[in-house]
Design brief:
Layout lengths: L6 E9 L4 E5 L2 E17 L4 E18 L2 E20 L3 E11 L2 E10 L2
Antiparallel strand pairs: 1-3, 2-3, 3-4, 4-5, 5-6, 6-7
Length: 115
């Protein structure tokens, strides 16, 4: 079995690939989000592992509904949980659920390389 550090620091950047749907008062529009974060991460040992993370996240959000646009930004606490499969000593595949803020969260699949 591969052994890896149990506690790590992760930096993360996310951006919208496809704009989301937004509706306000029956009028349809679109939204997008960009985030930057730094997390303290705990992973269990072994080839199959579980993970928890807590950190600081900054987000920039923009939306357009009915021809009118709005933008905003916020920063604060972010949490996540996940599971993964180690590939050798320097890589893994992970499935993760992250809470960005009270009403924004996401599910991701990632391929990671450890330095």
């Amino acid at each position: 079995m591969f052994e890896a550090a149990k506690e790590l620091i992760e930096g993360e950047y996310t951006d919208t690939v496809s704009e989301g749907d937004a509706t306000f008062g029956g009028i349809h529009g679109e939204w997008e989000i960009e985030t930057y974060a730094i997390y303290g991460v705990f992973r269990t040992r072994g080839t199959l592992f579980f993970k928890g993370k807590i950190g600081y996240l900054h987000e920039d959000v923009s939306s357009t509904v009915g021809g009118f646009g709005a933008t905003g930004s916020d920063s604060g606490l972010s949490l996540g949980i996940g599971a993964g499969l180690r590939i050798g000593h320097h890589g893994s595949i992970e499935l993760e659920y992250t809470i960005i803020e009270e009403d924004v969260d996401y599910l991701s699949v990632g391929l990671n390389y450890y330095f």
